[in-house]
Specification:
- Helices cover 21% and strands 19% of the residues.
- The chain has helices spanning 71-75, 93-99, 102-106, 185-197, 205-215, 251-256, 278-281, 287-298, 305-308, and strands spanning 66-69, 128-132, 138-150, 159-166, 172-173, 177-178, 221-228, 238-248, 265-272.
- The strands form two sheets. Strands 3, 4, 5, 6, 7, 8 and 9 form a seven-stranded mixed β-sheet that branches. Strands 1-2 form a two-stranded parallel sheet.
- Strand 3 and strand 4 form a beta hairpin.
Length: 315
């Protein structure tokens, strides 16, 4: 499931989801670039960017994005800290291009750089320059597991999705995280779900691991989206991109899979999917758009009474 090489000969890293992964759903997702211009609790105020000023193709007289990189990123500079995870202060174009960008690939071109040698956000202006709280110049790759079930204890067996409450913003989000160097996306998906939703006791650990292994087997996953994420941490020179995969629990697995928030999450829950649920409408970044794609194959949040009595749990 590797992406095609972008124009300009940009190198790529192969992300293999599994040998027998089902045919992907459509991966194109509308990018509003709205949240990437919002305030973040750990960021200084952004230079205001109007909707009509987002595109780099449009002039923006007087644009002065705020320079910001967090102290945590600076402390984890790999060039000075052997245990660090962040790029050096000066961007290395060769390293950045080797990392690839799903979004630039979809645009059919390689990385674009500023005159100062910094990678340019493929969607547009954000009001902040440098890396903010993101460790890497350019694309910062993540993996987001969309884990769903049908709740048999609610009328109509509504579709529910696992969400965690983020510690940085307090918003509900799909559990996910950064893809470590050399790590397969499939490994990241299982690791992040286990870390953020599987804080169980040592006695319960073997059972949870067995259930997680069953849930994240290759033939149970389907790619929902690959590309840019409208994330409030994004800057003009560093941004989030993800591979979102859908994993559906059958009735038996869903009843056995208990959720407990891990160190990276403040809370975790099964959240009902639907516009009538405020927490769902306000999911972090554009996570709602990812889950909306799942609804295309797994139905509405609350099937009608006429169908819910006869329909089986979707695979």
């Amino acid at each position: 499931m590797s992406s095609n090489s972008p124009a300009g000969g940009t190198r790529q890293r192969r992300h293999n989801i599994g040998k027998k992964t089902p045919t992907p759903m459509p991966s194109k997702c509308p990018v509003t670039h709205f949240r990437a211009r919002l305030e973040h609790p750990k960021y200084p105020p952004r230079w205001p960017v109007k909707d009509e000023e987002v595109s780099w193709e449009v002039g923006c007289a007087g644009y002065q994005p705020v320079e910001f990189v967090s102290s945590v990123v600076i402390a984890n500079d790999r060039s000075v800290n052997p245990q660090g995870w962040a790029d050096s202060a000066e961007p290395d174009c060769a390293v950045i291009e080797a990392r690839t960008s799903y979004e630039y690939i979809k645009q059919g071109r390689g990385y674009q750089f500023t005159e100062a040698g910094r990678p340019r956000n493929p969607v547009g202006r954000t009001g902040i320059q440098n890396r903010g709280a993101l460790g890497k110049w350019g694309a910062n790759h993540a993996a987001d597991p969309i884990v769903t079930r049908r709740n048999p204890h609610k009328p109509g067996k509504p579709l529910e999705v696992v969400v965690i409450r983020r510690r940085d913003t307090g918003e509900w989000a799909i559990p996910g995280g950064m893809v470590d160097p050399g790590e397969l996306v499939s490994e990241t998906l299982r690791r992040e779900f286990t870390e953020e939703a599987g804080n169980v006791s040592e006695a319960e650990r073997p059972r949870f691991e067995r259930l997680a292994a069953e849930l994240f087997r290759a033939d149970n996953g389907r790619e929902v989206y690959r590309g840019y994420v409208d994330d409030p941490r994004n800057t003009d020179n560093a941004w989030m991109e993800t591979v979102a995969m859908h994993f559906h629990c059958d009735a038996e697995l869903a009843s056995l899979l208990e959720l407990h928030a891990g160190d990276d999450a403040a809370d975790v829950q099964w959240l009902e999917v639907g516009e009538h649920v405020a927490q769902y409408r306000n999911l972090y970044a554009n996570h709602k758009e990812f889950v909306d794609k799942v609804v295309l194959t797994h139905g509405t949040a609350r099937p009608s009474a006429a169908t819910s009595n006869t329909s089986s749990d979707p695979a």
